[in-house]
Amino acid sequence: MSVTTSRKAQHIAAALDPAVVRRSGPGWPEIELFHEALPELDAEEVELSTDLLGWRLGAPLVVAGMTGGYDGATEINARLARAAERHGLAIGVGSQRTVLDDPSTTASYAVVRECAPTAPVIGNIGASQLIAQGDRPAVTPDDLRSLVDMVHADALAIHLNFLEEAVQPEGDSRTRGCAAAIARAVDALDVPVIVKETGAGMSRSTAARLRDLGVAALDVGGAGGTSFAIIERLRAEQQGDLPQVALGHVLGEWGIPTAAAVAASAGLGLPVIATGGVRSGLDAAKALVLGADVVGVARPLLLAALEGDDAVDTWITQFCLALRTVLLLTGAGSPAALKDKPYVAHGAIRDWLQTLGAVPR
């Protein structure tokens, strides 16, 4: 088993530990929506379907890329993919870096397209892999195209996980040149490129830079859900790497809360995916009112997938029921209509929004 394959299995095991969830949260409790007491809208008129990158989704929900690259990932990805197909959702795969090191892991990724023949599928590679790291060369345009072909992807996500890499005992340390490499990837591929953070959020200046590099959409990956700094701290503890353990303690809560990252990235002309601590349809509604187009969900669906197909369906159904009900109670007939609805922000999130110049309506 390669180092990257082993690490994938360790990540999933660690993600099941409640301790990896950021204590300070994504900011949803500090956003309040206005109740419309006279909505003049029948519940059956509320429409959840949403457009993203030319795809028509059954709800504003992306099954976030989580795993792949080890034996246990195949059935997890199959269950998530079957649910995406049934509910008309987009689905991402976990980082495909592993398959470049170990082609025998291909099936754990390819199963997503096999089980979701019509759903939008998003491939995945890290920005760190786009540049040389020590003795390891950068992935080539042909490598990127092979990753897309592997899962018949409709888009490729390039993830920014420099916080994780910094805490990871064997993490990549080079970052210079990643922006130019992202621009080259955009030019080299025939599918849209989504750039996604992985739990530390995205500032407005970074979002604007990525727009100017030609990316098609932004996944803010805000702080508030699973902290990969904590996951890597737990791995460092297992390895007895005390300096990395200490770093993980210091940076476990690092990042821009998801609510603030959404507001920061909205209004730049790119679709915004709000990932990071979305746990319900109410959370999703708050992300949408702040400017997100859709939300991404990882850990709750991972936990459901470990139980089985029925548990995944139950979670998605409950999510959609809550979101539909919130749309009704705000007088919004669709997810897009929430962008015009008023909201109140308080606490730390209000401070973030004021600093961003995003004054609550």
UniProtKB/TrEMBL annotation:
Belongs to the IPP isomerase type 2 family. It comes from Nocardioides endophyticus. The keyword Magnesium applies. Homooctamer. Dimer of tetramers. Keywords: Cytoplasm, Flavoprotein, FMN, Isomerase, Isoprene biosynthesis, Magnesium, Metal-binding, NADP. CDD domains: IDI-2_FMN. Substrate binds at R7, K8, S95, Q96, R97. Involved in the biosynthesis of isoprenoids. Catalyzes the 1,3-allylic rearrangement of the homoallylic substrate isopentenyl (IPP) to its allylic isomer, dimethylallyl diphosphate (DMAPP). Its EC number is 5.3.3.2. It holds the Pfam family FMN_dh. NCBIfam families: IPP_isom_2. InterPro entries: Aldolase_TIM (IPR013785), FMN-dep_DH (IPR000262), IPdP_isomerase (IPR011179). Its cofactor is Mg(2+); FMN; NADPH. Mg(2+) binds at E165. FMN binds at G65, M66, T67, S95, N124, K196, T226, G277, V278, R279, A298, R299. Residues 180-340 form the FMN-dependent dehydrogenase domain. HAMAP family: Idi_2 (MF_00354). It catalyses: isopentenyl diphosphate = dimethylallyl diphosphate. The keyword Flavoprotein applies. This is Isopentenyl-diphosphate delta-isomerase. It is found in: Cytoplasm.
